[in-house]
């Protein structure tokens, strides 16, 4: 079960690395900018977005895949975060993208909140239920992601312990016994591949657990460490 959860979180994260490219693939009209030698400024792009949606609460303006993406939130409504795409050559609004909807919204919700973020597509109310764990308010989704990260950390550290051949026999830890039968070959390949992946697994586990520590919501790391919520928040 732990392996399946880890696989889901890992695969969703890999897919989200290419989220901008996938959005461009799924919605090409939002990136159909006019070729131009000179482009409008970010301030003009912001003004064009506000002219199209006057009540738009602009958060930032970035250059993304050849267009200006004006990010912000609509005044009302669920999953209100949007991107107003502006043609950098003409200043025309190309369209409005829902940054938190669709398949990519579901994957983002899964990867970051275990489906517990109500402003993303795929929201599951049970994962947003808050629990009091050692004085810290945690959503079920946050707790689950933190536990998955700690499980990955435990598996990585236990793998190092099981692999460790000792200082004097260190070379054996990197040996591949090709003439000892299929079992020995598979066993050694498992160890070698595992040790090569250990730095990345530890990085994912430590940062994944650390990201549960949020402003005003200390999260699982503080819970395990026994750090009071006010102290973790810097109060």
Q: What is the domain tally?
A: 2
Strand order of the largest sheet: 1-2-3-4
- Annotation, overall tally of beta strands: 6
| Mean pLDDT over all positions | 82
Low-pLDDT regions: 214-235
Query: Based on helices, strands and strand pairing, what is the structural class?
Result: alpha+beta
Give the CA-based shape: elongated
The portion of residues assigned to helices is 40-55%
Number of DSSP helical runs: 8
Q: Order of SSEs, N→C? A: HHHEEEEHEEHHHH
First CA to last CA: what distance?
38 Å
The value of Rg in angstroms is: 23 Å
Residues in β-strands, percent: 5-15%
Profile the largest sheet.
Answer: 4 strands, antiparallel
Which helices and strands occur, and which strands form pairs?
Blueprint: H1 2-16, H2 19-26, H3 42-52, E1 57-64, E2 67-73, E3 81-86, E4 93-98, H4 102-113, E5 130-133, E6 136-139, H5 140-163, H6 182-210, H7 219-225, H8 229-232
Antiparallel strand pairs: 1-2, 2-3, 3-4, 5-6
What does this structure look like?
The chain is α+β, with helices and mostly antiparallel strands. The chain has two domains: about 100 residues, Nuclear Transport Factor 2, Chain: A (Roll), CATH 3.10.450.40; about 100 residues. About 45% of the residues lie in helices and about 15% in strands. The protein is built from eight helices and six strands. α1 crosses α4 and α5 crosses α6. The radius of gyration is 23 Å and the shape is elongated. The chain starts with a helix and ends with a helix.
Keywords:
Nuclear Transport Factor 2, Chain: A, 2 domains, four-stranded antiparallel sheet, 6 strands
